[in-house]
Design a protein that fits this description.
Blueprint: H1 3-11, H2 16-32, E1 59-65, H3 68-75, E2 81-89, H4 98-101, E3 109-116, H5 123-134, E4 142-143, E5 146-147, E6 153-155, H6 160-175, E7 186-187, E8 192-194, H7 202-205, H8 210-226
Parallel strand pairs: 6-7
Antiparallel strand pairs: 1-3, 1-6, 2-3, 2-8, 4-5
Function: Has an important function as a repair enzyme for proteins that have been inactivated by oxidation. Catalyzes the reversible oxidation-reduction of methionine sulfoxide in proteins to methionine.
Protein name: Peptide methionine sulfoxide reductase MsrA
Pfam families: PMSR
């Protein structure tokens, strides 16, 4: 039972029975595939190599690590982050939409574009959060109950400096055997395309949705526990139209 099935079951609004069936099946599947939640959060060493001291107040990072609902929700709670947009990276503009990407053959990964102030939080620190609490970097083409290349672990560096930091950090973590398995994270190239409005701020707008409760809220809790100095209570939200789709109360 994937995130897509759960989302479509509710969005179709076909009645309480369909919603109940979707929730029940999702709960069983999430218990069977619990990877990607708080139990995977680990304290890891910071990167030995980071970007040089910042002289600007705005930089962008593009990261993919499973469902973008949780990835966005985590980074929206990080001090120094000024904006996080959920979207698609790795494919073309023509197929940068949820229906196409969900098929798994567009080249896109569900991703987030993180705008941050490098004088307050460094790119290397964002990667430390990415590897430790935002997702499980050892899983190949899956996170928790979701499987497919669109859920792969991937970093899309926006500069040569980011490329070097990310590459060195992956090598550092692998050499230290921080995780039980080698990192599956890939460094890739690709343009970022924002996702549909109804995907933005999804965790904040739907905190009682079973998928969010099981898979994503524990990651935000882990961020607060492992990185208390970097955690902010009020998330930095994307401004979207009021007509954007939102799940009904459960």
């Amino acid at each position: 039972m994937t995130k897509r099935f759960f989302f479509l079951a509710f969005r179709g609004r076909r009645g309480v029975l369909a919603a109940a069936v979707a929730i029940t099946a999702l709960l069983w599947q999430c218990m069977a595939w619990s990877s990607g939640g708080a139990e995977d959060a680990v304290k890891i060493p910071p990167p030995a190599r980071d970007e040089a001291a910042a002289t600007v107040h705005a930089e962008t990072a593009v990261l993919a690590g499973g469902c973008f609902w949780g990835m966005q929700g985590v980074f929206q709670h990080v001090n120094g982050v000024t904006g996080v947009v959920a979207g698609y990276t790795g494919g073309s503009a023509q197929n940068a939409n949820y229906n196409a990407v969900s098929g798994g053959d567009t080249g896109h990964a569900e991703s987030v574009e993180v705008v941050f102030d490098p004088t307050k939080v460094s790119y290397g620190t964002l990667l430390q959060i990415y590897f430790s609490v935002a997702h499980n970097p050892t899983e190949l083409n899956r996170q928790g109950p979701d499987s497919g290349t669109q859920y792969r672990s991937a970093i899309f560096p926006r500069s040569a400096a980011q490329q070097q930091v990310a590459q060195a950090y992956i090598a550092q973590l692998n050499a230290a055997h921080v995780f039980a398995a080698p990192l599956a994270t890939r460094l890739e190239k690709g343009d970022f395309y924002p996702a549909e409005a109804y995907h933005q701020n999804y965790l904040t707008n739907n905190p009682e949705a079973p998928y969010i409760v099981i898979n994503d809220l524990p990651k935000v809790a882990a961020l607060k526990q492992i990185f208390p100095a970097l955690y902010r209570d009020d998330p930095v939200l994307v401004k979207v139209q009021e007509s954007s789709y939102r799940l009904p109360p459960i």
